[in-house]
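Office hours follow-up: a student asked to see two folded examples consecutively, so here they are.
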Amino acid sequence: MLISEKATISASADKVWNHLQTLQGAEDYLPIVTKSKVSGSGLGTTRTCDIEMGEQKFQIQETLVRLDDSQKSLTISIDDGPPGMKDLKIDFSVNGNDESSEIVVSNEFEHTAESEQMIKGILNMICTGLKNYHEQ
């Protein structure tokens, strides 16, 4: 099942894409991320995020497994994390022009009703966070 969220951002597609593809600064746009560390650049880049969700504190480790500059799209694989997040692949795409962009964040996976709500909430948080960050 495909779960997808999108947001229109009042910033150029190039600006949003150039920020997104580095995987830098997740804590700047995702309120559940308290710290992130990026290693490498381009395909194969890894990121470790310290996450706090209410009383829960944990780490996720991600790898940039697909990167297409010409289409402004990428895929991040969550290689390690709590059940329900581990092994997820999250797809990102950015479209637009010099004045505004649309970001689409999606995941295709077999979800339970509970995990579907969790993933939908995370994808929405990513879209909203990127919109707020780039419109500051």
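And the second, which I mentioned at the end of office hours:
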Amino acid sequence: MENVKVPMYKRILAFIIDFLLVAILSSLVMYAMPHGEKYNETLENSTNLRKMISESEEPLSNQDLINISNELTYDSYKYGVLENSITIVIMISYFTLFTYFYHGQTIGKLLVKTQVVSVDGKEPSFIGSLGRSFLITRTFADVITLILVLSMKKPTFVKSYYYIDLVLTVLWISCPIVAIWRQDGRGLHDLVGKTMVLDKRKLPQEEEKIVEAKIEEKKVEKKVEKKETTKKTNKKSNKKK
């Protein structure tokens, strides 16, 4: 199937709309649910530290800021396993289920009139929808961070997480960069999910091409079958002779 490359601004706009919707939903869920004492304490410490840094007369070094940021990340994941897990589930569920059940369209894609399809022009599979959503939403980074926090001691995490986060961020940013670079507009997440994004307004033309391609494919298959049948007939007649 020939892909009509969707302008990147449309894809980014759709993602921003979806991300904001998920953020609002997650915030409402977080607000409604009870939190542990340690989690509330972590949030309070985070607020106090940021206030202290902004009011400090002597600026902190970059390394100190990195260490403080990593410590806050560790504590927020360590004492907010349930909260972070719920946020991850909401994020991945929204993007995956909408893509799979709603003909390749999230609310954002519906508004900007784009659509996700598999590389063969059909609706995306569940695994494909999950794979692309896992990458483009940066959920993979949250899952890896959560695993690291639960398996590493705090000093080790604080020392190493800056480089780990850098690698995860580069991997995430490469999704749209690959899409811009490739002629067919497929990002890293599309390659993983075996999908592509089409402009909904141009889909009728695309669908005609798909139908024509399938007709040609059937013609070729019939020719091949005819040849095979002729060969078998000739073999049988030769044996009789």
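Two things to take away from it. Residues 8-35+80-202 form one domain. Residues 54 and 218 are 69 Å apart (CA to CA).
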